[in-house]
Design goal:
This is 2-isopropylmalate synthase. The protein is α/β, with parallel strands linked by helices and about 375 residues long. The protein has 15 helices and eight strands. The structure holds 3-methyl-2-oxobutanoic acid (KIV) and zinc ion. 3-methyl-2-oxobutanoic acid binds near residues 101, 142, 168, 172 and 205.
């Protein structure tokens, strides 16, 4: 793996993810999730927003002390007290990072009521201050995708000169589209002096359902850090889902030859745990981690999968750590699937008996949404009792 094709995975489940209304996690739950992220090979854990609350400060400090491999990052607005508080929390980490941001689009500039020059000055002061505390500083122009290009180039250059080591380009409101996401990164790499000395990151929200596509397009254009969350948790429609970008890069390595350090077999475990602790269930048909993501019900699909799994599966369930059966028994299931299921359950039935059980099975499947293993065992027992 060449270093230039290594994509850094920056997980913000505990910061941007936890900002979803109702997704608050307890201190212990945050520590547990951070430890799972570290174990799965996430490069950077954004652990929280230390100035936001005492609880956030305590969680970021504890995660900083606990992390074994990952860089631990805290978020700070472009204000000196925020940055100082953030540093107080992350400084305990083996590898700390300060992430400071300010909204640079016209709509966001109006909120602190700063003109372009005043904002540029603020960026220079705050990034310089952060860099004096920590040698790993990330800077984000919030709402970058709706910021004028000339101004964006100007402020990115200022942040780089002031010492930022990573420049994150947020699509804060999920407004961009893949071609534009790529063009923006390309434009910055071409126009900003010093752009080749820093890492460019992509941070996409999913308001139009394009977060994964936008993040991957940015990587193809030269971004080398993807910001994402487990299960795509995050404000409104969420952030880029970690499992989606990581598996897309793995499965389509032929056309996107980029590598991450993620142990993908840990994906399903952490996805389920995040769903539990955040109280945000994963939709059944969610890519990669949904309950149905690897399930086949129609007879044609089941028959195909039983003969050659590649007919209807582009990745193996085991690749994400899932060791469950991929056949869902229901009214669309065929005889081949029933025979395979019976054999899994330890029944070796002859053709006549299979025919009989199949008729009973179809009648039951018409009445019931899902047919469970216990139902099938009962059918076999019924069929045997009546012969
Ligand atoms: O979406 C966003 O702009 C953010 C920033 C704080 C990076 O989350
Ligand atoms: Zn965000």
């Amino acid at each position: 793996m060449s270093d230039k094709n290594r994509v850094v995975i920056f997980d913000t489940t505990l910061r941007d993810g936890e900002q979803s209304p109702g997704a608050t996690m307890s201190h212990e739950e945050k520590l547990e999730i951070a430890s799972l992220l570290d174990e799965m090979g996430v490069d950077i854990i954004e652990a929280g927003f230390p100035i936001a609350s005492e609880g956030d400060f305590a969680a970021v400090s504890a995660i900083a002390r606990q992390a074994r491999n990952a860089v631990v990052c805290g978020l700070a607005r472009a204000q000196i007290p925020d940055i100082d508080r953030c540093w107080e929390a992350v400084r305990h980490a083996k590898r700390p990072r300060i992430h400071t941001f300010i909204g640079t689009s016209p709509l966001h500039r109006a909120i602190p009521n700063l003109d372009m020059d005043q904002m540029a000055e603020r960026i220079e002061q705050t990034v310089t201050h952060a860099r004096n505390l920590c040698d790993n500083v990330q800077w984000s122009p919030m709402d970058a995708t709706r910021t004028e290009h000339d101004y964006l180039c100007r402020v990115v250059e200022i942040a780089i000169r002031a010492g930022a080591t990573t420049i994150n380009i947020p699509d804060t409101v999920g407004y961009t589209a893949p071609r534009e996401s790529a063009a923006l990164i390309r434009m910055l790499l071409e126009r900003v002096p010093g752009a080749d000395t820093v890492v460019f990151a992509t941070h996409c929200h999913n308001d139009l359902g394009m977060a994964t596509a936008n993040a991957l397009a940015a990587v193809e254009a030269g971004a080398r850090q993807i910001e994402c969350t487990i299960n795509g948790l995050g404000e409104r429609a969420g952030n880029t889902a970690l499992e989606e970008v990581v598996m897309a890069l793995k499965v389509r390595h032929d056309i996107m030859p980029f590598d991450t350090g993620i142990d993908t077999t840990k994906i399903i475990g952490i996805s389920r745990r995040v769903a539990q602790v955040s109280g945000f269930p994963v939709q059944f048909n969610k890519a990669i981690v949904g309950k149905n993501a690897f399930l086949h019900e129609s007879g044609i699909h089941q028959d195909g999968v039983l003969k050659n799994v590649e007919t209807f599966e582009i990745m193996r369930p085991a690749d994400i750590g899932l060791n469950e059966t991929n056949i869902a028994m229901g009214k669309h299931s065929g005889r081949a699937a029933l025979r395979a299921k019976l054999s899994d359950l330890g029944y070796d039935v002859g053709d006549n008996q299979l025919k009989d059980i199949f008729v009973r099975f179809k009648a039951l499947a018409d009445r019931k949404k899902e047919v469970y293993d216990e139902d099938i065992v009962a059918l076999v027992q019924d069929a045997s009792a009546n012969t």
